[in-house]
Design brief:
By secondary structure, this protein is mainly α. It has helices at about 5, 35-45, 50-60, 80-90, 100-115, 120-125, 135-145, 150-160, 170-180, 185-195, 205-215, 220-230, 240-250, 255-265. It comes from Arabis nemorensis.
């Protein structure tokens, strides 16, 4: 039966290391830490040496040192932003195909979202091939956090137009936004879309958002009911899900009930080895 109805809530090639450039940045000839690679890319990007940025993006993945949220930290909202982004758009299509290129694009999009450059992130998506839902996640996260729900839904429509499936994580950004604001009717509509339109099942984060929504609406009993439904359905309960309930109980002064809740659920969220 629908959750909505039940709850009734209102090996890359190593010859790339022979790439030559006039850079003063030395490209590592052996494995280095992600921090080291990020620092080298920062220095190269900050100095405008994007040929070296390209080489470093290739070499780090070949050595198993993957990109991080700091990889494009040199890209900032300064006077050089536009030219730096254009240089990145020029060199990214030149790096190795597959994971290396896709991951570099994804990390760049996440960086642009952190800089609140959503339109530029969408432009970069237009440069890509092999799009996946995760490519759009930073954009949806950024928009829904700012309560720009209509813009976020337009991004969803863009995903569909590009034949990118809308996964449960994409919907969870909307669900969390509505539940944080206590908008239970809107949250119910998102659950309906997940189950009826997409035919996928809500996950632990979906339930977590629903518990949050119930708590922020002052409906602790409903929140506990959702938590029990999670257990019945075999859904792993997140630490934050328990915390939502406890926080609301303390806020409302239900100290004895809160203590009973803690004692009842103590140890249930331990990971099974």
């Amino acid at each position: 039966m629908s959750l909505l109805l039940r709850l009734r809530i209102v090996k890359p090639s190593l010859n790339l290391f022979t790439d030559r450039s006039f850079s003063t940045v030395k490209i590592p000839q052996s494995r280095r830490s992600t921090t080291k690679f990020d620092k080298l890319i920062y220095d190269a990007g900050n100095s405008g040496d994007f040929e070296t940025v390209r080489c470093l993006l290739n070499s780090r993945v070949a050595y198993g040192s993957f990109n991080t949220s700091d990889t494009f930290k040199f890209l900032t909202n300064t006077a050089s932003y536009t030219s730096d982004l254009e240089d990145l758009r020029r060199v990214l299509p030149q790096i190795d195909r597959g994971f290396t290129r896709k991951n570099a694009y994804d990390i760049l999009i996440a960086r642009l979202c952190k800089l609140n450059r959503i339109e530029d992130a969408l432009i970069v998506i237009g440069d890509m091939s092999g799009l996946t839902p995760s490519t759009f996640h930073p954009i949806l996260c950024s928009l829904t956090k700012k309560n720009k729900i209509e813009e976020a839904w337009r991004v969803v429509e863009s995903m569909r137009s590009k034949s990118v499936p809308v996964d449960v994580t994409s919907y969870n950004y909307f669900l969390t936004s509505h539940c944080y604001d206590g908008e239970l009717e809107e949250a119910s509509e998102v659950i309906r879309k997940i189950e009826e339109e997409e035919g996928i099942s809500p996950d632990a984060c979906s339930y977590d958002a629903l518990v949050l929504g119930a708590c922020r609406s002052g409906k602790v009993e409903a929140a506990i009911g959702i938590l029990r439904r999670m257990e019945e359905d075999g859904v792993r309960v997140l630490y934050s899900t328990y915390a939502h309930v406890i926080t609301e109980m303390v806020k409302e002064g239900y100290y004895a009930l809160g203590l009973e809740f803690v004692l009842t659920y103590a140890g249930r969220d331990l990971k099974k080895l």
